[in-house]
Specification:
The protein is α/β, with parallel strands linked by helices. It has twelve helices and ten strands. Strand 6, helix 6 and strand 7 form a beta-alpha-beta unit. It is globular and about 45 Å long. The chain starts with a strand and ends with a helix.
């Protein structure tokens, strides 16, 4: 299947996220984010705020022990779990079984933003994927190393996991040169989807989304201002928030890519181009979502 569909409001309206189930927080979806290390604590905050702005009702943040109290103060809306940590300040693999049990009790899980690419991250990611049950899964940044080590890891899932690599991460995933990925990002996304059985979000100046059945979409009108530290963390948070609300994986990916891109365009108009911050992206999200759904 070679057709690539532009991601537009018309496309999104045909796959709108479900309305909340009842009037409780649980009915809006429960999210677990496993992320961060002592040198990149901000990734947790960016993903957390984006998940809440996407409309998720309940949020758990699982972080290494030294980050638990400051993260809890910074995100008072979340339940924060402090985990044992490695000597380098990452989440230790010894927490894997506990995290897998937590994943069984939520609707969507995001693992990876701000995590180091090491054996502990691979072990934690593998346990979450195998133990998540019916929860939707998003693998980002440090979690992607688990797919390099075990390409079949996500193939058993009842619904495909979503991966969100940029060109450098995709090059590592596929064992190719970054230049080859940047020369044809759509082809790279197709190869990743075929290899891992995932919905693949290939981030870049134009962001491509490919689903396991071969369908492909592209968002081409983003803004260079989104090429800033932490921007990918906000995108991953949007995806998991929409998954928790009940969106299908392809829909969660498409809505997130569009909303993220449109937020960048709005912020660029406000600030005169580049220079806006990733932390400002989530604040635009509720307005964009509601306008598309009107």
């Amino acid at each position: 299947m070679s057709t690539v569909t532009p991601i537009t409001e018309h496309v999104l309206r045909s796959m709108a996220p479900p309305e909340p189930d009842g009037d409780s927080k649980d009915g809006r979806g429960r999210v677990l984010i496993v992320a961060g290390c002592t040198s990149l604590p901000g990734a947790v905050l960016l993903a957390a705020h984006a998940a809440l702005r996407a409309g998720a009702g309940k949020l758990q943040l699982a972080v290494c022990r030294d980050l638990a109290i400051p993260i809890g103060i910074a995100v008072p809306e979340a339940l924060v779990v402090g985990l044992s940590q490695t000597a380098d300040g990452g989440i230790a693999q010894t927490c894997a079984d506990d995290l897998a049990k937590r994943a069984e009790r939520v609707d969507a899980v995001l693992v990876g933003p701000g995590m180091s690419e090491d054996a502990d991250a691979e072990g934690v990611t593998g346990a979450l994927v195998r133990g998540a049950g019916k929860a939707g899964l998003v693998l980002d940044a440090g979690a992607l190393a688990a797919l390099r080590a075990e390409p079949d890891l996500t193939r058993h899932l009842s619904k495909p996991a979503i991966i969100t690599p940029h060109a450098g991460e995709m090059a590592q995933l596929l064992g190719e040169e970054r230049e080859a990925i940047e020369a044809d990002p759509l082809a790279a996304a197709r190869r990743a989807t075929e290899r891992f059985g995932t919905v693949t979000v290939m981030k870049g100046g134009s962001t491509h989304v490919v689903s396991p059945d071969g369908r492909a979409w592209c968002y081409e009108v983003g803004h260079v201002g989104l090429a800033t530290s932490g921007s990918g963390d906000t995108l991953a948070g949007l995806v998991v928030g929409l998954l928790a609300r009940g969106a299908e994986p392809e829909a969660a990916a498409l809505w997130s890519v569009y909303t993220h891109g449109e937020a960048g365009r709005r912020l660029a108009r406000r600030y005169g181009g580049i220079g806006f911050l990733a932390r400002e992206i989530p604040g635009e999200v509720p307005f964009i979502l509601s306008e598309v759904l009107m």
